[in-house]
UniProtKB/TrEMBL annotation, chain A:
Pfam families: RPC5. PANTHER family: DNA-DIRECTED RNA POLYMERASE III SUBUNIT RPC5 (PTHR12069:SF0), DNA-DIRECTED RNA POLYMERASES III 80 KDA POLYPEPTIDE RNA POLYMERASE III SUBUNIT 5 (PTHR12069). Residues 1-20 are annotated as: Disordered. This is DNA-directed RNA polymerase III subunit RPC5. It comes from the Eukaryota. One of its GO terms (biological process) is tRNA transcription by RNA polymerase III. GO terms for cellular component: RNA polymerase III complex. Residues 1-13 have a biased composition (Basic and acidic residues).
Automatic annotation (TrEMBL), chain B:
GO terms for molecular function: DNA binding. The lineage of its organism: Eukaryota, Fungi, Fungi incertae sedis, Zoopagomycota, Kickxellomycotina. Residues 341-358 have a biased composition (Acidic residues). GO terms for biological process: tRNA transcription by RNA polymerase III. Residues 1-125, 147-188, 333-362 are annotated as: Disordered. This is DNA-directed RNA polymerase III subunit RPC4.
Length: 264, 434
């Protein structure tokens, strides 16, 4: 069916006898053929970052952080994106008020902080780049969203509270009350205790996360040399053909098995 | 408008006893007639049964008599009107009950013989139909009603209480009324169905079926056409040419592919064979080195190397055709060889050895077809490639090294997202599966 077109294709992409029928559409013709390569070189390191606050007309390269931090164990990162304090739109008065949340030196709020949050994957994601007419795929390890971190507001509020001398005792009492409530619940039923333990474990994890200190993260932008060399790892070095161990019916079974029944 | 819901609530609750009360109160509100009458009619179940007797005694004494099925009281034939008809579409009937009230009263005066129910039914039905047609459920109720109504004539359906109440009151009469007397009623039922679209019943259903099928087909076709060409154009630029040229600038684009599961891969047997061969080479070298110390060893080693190379060439990977052949031939040995060779290899050319555990190599082909379809074949699995959801926010690909020194590399902006779905038609033994 499409053999004449096949000949025109690049040789390394051509498997003799390949026709549209092999792709499930016997009446069709192949217009272009791209070999697909898979590599795992960056598989453990790739994160698909989502920036929900920025529209897709902006490229992430335009969002260069001044400072970046990482919690190595949990893999959480924080980016400080600089704000233009000289802009006519910048309200210096408010900037000074909020800058208290960053430091006491009277610094203006000149950064916005984005903190990463992991998002559960619903399927396998793969990053694909084309080079020399070849498509190279690498599995993506995590989906991450960068959300604004408003810790500076918390700090501003704390300072205001301290400044207006609200009783710390009240806060402690509240905490004690809370503690008591928890204990009561635990004693009441074993099931509740188990539930509480679960919740506590999440809180526990959260606490652990907060306890881990930030480490400096070196951020390399899109056009930089380092990024270029890393992105070259997206290309497979091996040109040999891999054999797919999974048959189509087995594949279907694995797909169905991996689906979570979230629809009744 | 608080009136409406409250009234609605009142109706069912007021059915058994307070119909009159409800009617009068409703009247007071000004909606009055419509509601009161409707309430009374809807309040059918036990109300009419009780009312029938009293009505016989005092026909049309109260204004709410309009609500009671028989005005003159002469023919206390069971009026199947209320339960049967209303069942079809309760909400609309409740709503529409407001309208026909005015009409109903007039009609009641005009046709006392027919009985409230029917007259009311007719009056009620038509406005009800009109309302249902105009609303968002214009198509829906017609279908439901067409199914339900046919089965509904003379039976209770959604309002069993109503029927039950009536049945209890008039027993055989009710049923008789339902079946026999309701022939006109039945026809009214039929009318109801059809009147939803103001068309004949047959035309109605036929048109609906056609429309649905056509709509589904149209949507499918549109989806197919719309999505495919955008994906196809992304890769090949121009679907019309069959020269195999890829779209310009494709090299700079970063794509994300969504795939439900990643199949498992093994190294091609050629690689394994090659590694095995090189391993053999090594062993032989060592053996020869151990046996002979003279320089003569070198040529023999070379010979051995040549021999090994020759054997390797048989398994050589370069032409794809051979790959295919070898794949088929060597498959059974794959597992054995893989296990053996994974561990050790010191040949520099086998850099890919590092990625032995992970697949690194060619896994398939992506084709753009003339019809605009884009398919990817991985092994024997055929996947259909379509456009993923359009993302309104910024996305980037970041490579993060969590080990020392901690670094993050921005690899690029995500330009396009694709969704890979397995093509079920191409799975050969799918039908034979359980």
């Amino acid at each position: 069916m499409s053999s004449p077109e096949d000949i025109k294709m690049k040789d390394n992409a051509d498997i003799p006898g390949d026709s549209a029928a092999e792709y499930g559409l016997p009446e069709d013709e192949i217009v272009a053929k791209i070999p697909v390569y898979l590599t795992h070189k960056l598989a453990k390191n790739l994160h698909l970052m989502q920036y929900p606050q920025n529209s897709n007309s902006v490229k992430p390269g335009e969002l260069l952080p001044g400072v970046a931090r990482i919690k190595p164990i949990h893999g959480q990162i924080e980016l400080d994106i600089p704000l233009d304090v000289q802009s006519a739109m910048y309200n210096k008065e408010r900037g000074r008020e909020l800058g208290v949340g960053i430091s006491d030196t009277g610094r203006l709020l000149d950064i916005r902080t984005l903190v990463s949050v992991n998002i559960p994957k619903s399927c396998n994601y793969m990053a694909g780049v084309v080079q020399d007419g070849e498509l190279h795929l690498t599995p993506i390890d995590k989906l991450t969203q960068l959300r604004p971190s408003l810790k500076y507001l918390d700090r501003v509020a704390e300072k205001q509270r301290a400044a207006s001398k609200i009783d710390d005792d009240d806060e402690e009492e509240e905490k004690e009350v809370k503690a008591q409530t928890i204990q009561v619940t635990v004693r009441s039923a074993e099931a509740e205790e188990a539930l509480r333990q679960q919740q506590n474990s999440i809180a526990f994890m959260q606490k652990k996360l907060e306890e881990e200190p930030w480490s400096k993260l070196q951020y390399y932008d899109m056009g930089s040399e380092e990024s270029g060399s890393v992105s070259s790892k997206l290309i497979a070095s091996n040109r040999e053909e891999l054999i797919c161990k999974t048959s189509p019916s087995d594949y279907l079974i694995s797909v169905i098995g991996s689906m979570e029944p979230d629809v009744l | 408008m608080p009136d409406i819901p409250s009234q609605g609530d009142e109706k069912p609750s007021s059915r058994p006893s307070s119909s009159l009360r409800g009617g009068s109160s409703l009247r007071g509100r000004g909606r009055g007639r419509g509601l009161s009458s409707s309430s009374s009619t809807t309040g059918g179940p036990s109300l009419p049964s009780e009312r029938l007797t009293s009505i016989r005694n005092r026909p049309t004494s109260t204004p709410s008599a309009a609500t009671t099925p028989t005005t003159g009281g002469s023919k206390l034939v069971f009026k199947p009107t209320i339960p049967a008809r209303r069942n079809k579409k309760e909400p609309s009937s409740l709503l529409t009950n407001t309208l026909p009230e005015a009409k109903r009263e007039k009609k009641d005066e005009k046709r006392p013989d027919r009985g409230r129910g029917r007259g009311m039914m007719r009056a009620r039905e038509r406005p009800a139909l009109i309302e249902s047609v105009s609303g968002p459920f214009a198509q829906g109720p017609a279908l439901i009603s067409s199914v339900g109504r046919r089965g509904m004539t003379g039976t209770s359906g959604p309002m069993p209480s109503a029927m039950g109440g009536l049945g209890d009151a008039s027993g055989v009469k009710a049923e008789g009324g339902a079946t026999g007397d309701s022939k006109p009623g039945g026809s009214e039922d039929v009318e109801l169905v059809m009147l939803t679209d103001h068309n004949a019943l047959d035309n109605n259903s036929a048109v609906e079926v056609q429309t649905e099928e056509m709509a589904i087909q149209a949507v499918e076709e549109m989806n197919r056409l719309r999505l495919d060409f955008s994906v196809a154009e992304f890769f090949s630029g121009d679907c019309k040419t069959t020269e195999g040229e890829l779209a310009a600038g494709l090299d700079e684009k970063m794509m994300v592919f969504q795939i439900p599961q990643l199949p498992e891969f093994d190294l091609a047997p050629e690689i394994i064979q090659r590694r095995l061969a090189s391993k053999q080479k090594k062993l032989m070298k060592q053996r020869i080195a151990a046996e002979k110390i003279k320089e003569d060893i070198k040529p023999s080693i070379v010979d051995i190397d040549a021999a090994a190379d020759n054997s390797a060439i048989n398994v050589d990977v370069k032409p794809d055709i051979r790959q295919l052949e070898m794949m088929e031939d060597v498959k059974p040995d794959l597992s054995k060889l893989a296990i053996e060779d994974d561990k050790d290899d010191s040949e520099p050319e086998d850099e890919d050895q590092e990625n032995d555990d992970q697949a690194d190599g060619r896994v398939g082909t992506l084709v753009v077809l003339k019809s605009g379809a884009v398919r990817m074949k991985i092994g024997d699995i055929v996947l259909d490639v379509s456009r993923g959801a359009d993302c309104q926010f910024m996305r980037g690909l970041l490579a993060i090294d969590q080990r020392e020194p901690h670094s993050a590399f921005l690899l690029g902006n995500v330009d396009q997202q694709f969704l890979c779905t397995p093509d079920l038609d191409s799975i050969p033994d799918l039908e034979q599966q359980e």
